[in-house]
Structure formats: structure tokens, C-alpha cells
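Appendix B.2, paired examples.
Example (i):
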Amino acid sequence: MSSSDLPTPVKKAPTGLEAWGLSSMPAMGLATLITALHWRPFQPLPMLFVPVLLGSSYLNVAGFQIDSAGITAAWSGLYVLLAMRRRQPLKRRFMARGIVRGAAMGLGTVNAVACGYTYAKGDRKQEAVERKARNRWGTEN
């Protein structure tokens, strides 16, 4: 059997967790929800998470998807731990602010799991090859 008779290998499609972890949108979504919750009245500690998550989203778009997933996983998990410290009465959980808080904590948890999985299973050599082939900024020859 010659090498021309062998089927070409098919590129594996990412799983749901990998696709979530490789996307730039989860970090941006969590940053938006954090801003909605903590801008008024301004709370400085939770607002420190927003620029880090936005920077992570930029890194993802720039081609560093695995590193971006690691940053997003760490900071999303840290935000969930910070948000879980404060208990909320049952009545307030079903008001608009409580629903947004629940969505932010849920999204942060999913981000921590999916992006952590992507970071742990990521192939940096393959990512570098893809980044060079894409040549987004026109600097590669």
C-alpha cells in the first residue's frame, strides 16, 4: 500500500469545553456582567477583574488562545470565590440584580472549568504554527 492510498488525517473538531475555552467571548461576557454589578455603587475590588478579563480577551484574539484560557480560568474562578463570600437573602436572589449576580457567578464557574480544561490540554506548538499561518498582523514572512 503506497502512501497515496492512505486517507488524509482529519483535523479533530474541538469539544464543547474546548470550544468554550478557545473563544474570546466568555471573558468579555463576564467582564460585562461584573461591570453591570459593581459599577454603581462603585466597588473597586471586583472592578479590578474587568481589565484583566478584557486583556485576556485581547490575547485570545491576538492568537494566544491557550494562555488566554489560563488567565480567564484563574480570574473567573477567583471572582466566583469572591462573590460567594457574600450571602444574599432569598428575596433578593430573584430581583434583577440577584439574577445578574447569579448569571455572573454561573458564567464564572463555567469559564473556570472550560478554560482550565483548555489550558491543561492545550498544545502550544500547534497554537504557534496556527498563529504563524494566520499571520494576523502581517509580521510573519
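Example (ii):
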Amino acid sequence: MEDTVRAAECFAANVYEANYKKKNRKASIEMIKWCPPNPRWIKVNLDGAANRNRDLSMAGGVFRDSFGTQIEGFQRVVGRGYAINSELWAILHGLEITLIRGHNKFAKREGNMVADWLAKTCPSTDVNLRILDVPTFYVRKLLLEDKFGVPYVKTN
């Protein structure tokens, strides 16, 4: 229970910090890379995206073990709205899958290029939650880059 409370506090602090940075935005560049969870833990990377051109919001996520191997992923169009709505849908679906699969240890979000890609490439006609048992070719590429510690550039 304490881990869950700490994770929620960390998430709230990150949301606050992101909103603060957005209001006081100065151009910055960060190098970010995915870090594996401890052995026997599962890391859940989640992301949401709002596509202004098609006015769609999408959610995606990936579950990985301590070796960086994908256990499963998901994608879903969550309707129209803002990016924050799709972020919350991604959290909800990540928690649903966690409960269904019986995972009880998971690590915080960081370096989530796979989840970002899953959220942004969700088929626009599919409103049902898509569970991805086998990673696509591009997801495998991103998973390998994460395993080898390849950083990516984050700009705001």
C-alpha cells in the first residue's frame, strides 16, 4: 500500500511540475532514456495523445519486464478531447490490465517512447481497447533501443 501511495504522490508531483513548466516555458532539451525496473518487477509505460488534425484522443501503453522485454501493450481511441484526458484514459487502462493480470508490482513512468508511439499510432476507427500480445516490428525496434540504453531527445 505504501508503494501505491508513493507512486501516486510522485505522479501528482510530476503533473504539477509539468503544468508549472508549461506556464513558465523556456525552450529546453533533455536527453531521456528508459530504465528497467528491478528484477521480478514490471514497468508500465503509459501515454496519451491528442491529434488536432483528426480531433482524436488516443491512449497507449506497454508492460515490460526487467530485461526490457514486452509482456503486452495496448492502444485505444478514447474519443475527442485534450491530451490530459487521453493520459488519464491510459492510466485507467493500465490499471485495469494490471488488475486483470494480477500484477502487483510496477514502477514509475519514464522514457516511454514505446507507449508514446502506441498512443500516437492507434487506428482512428477502432474505439475498442486493443491488447497487443506480440509487439510490431517498430515496437520491437523501440524495445531494443531501450534495452541498449539509447537515449532520445525531449524538447518542450
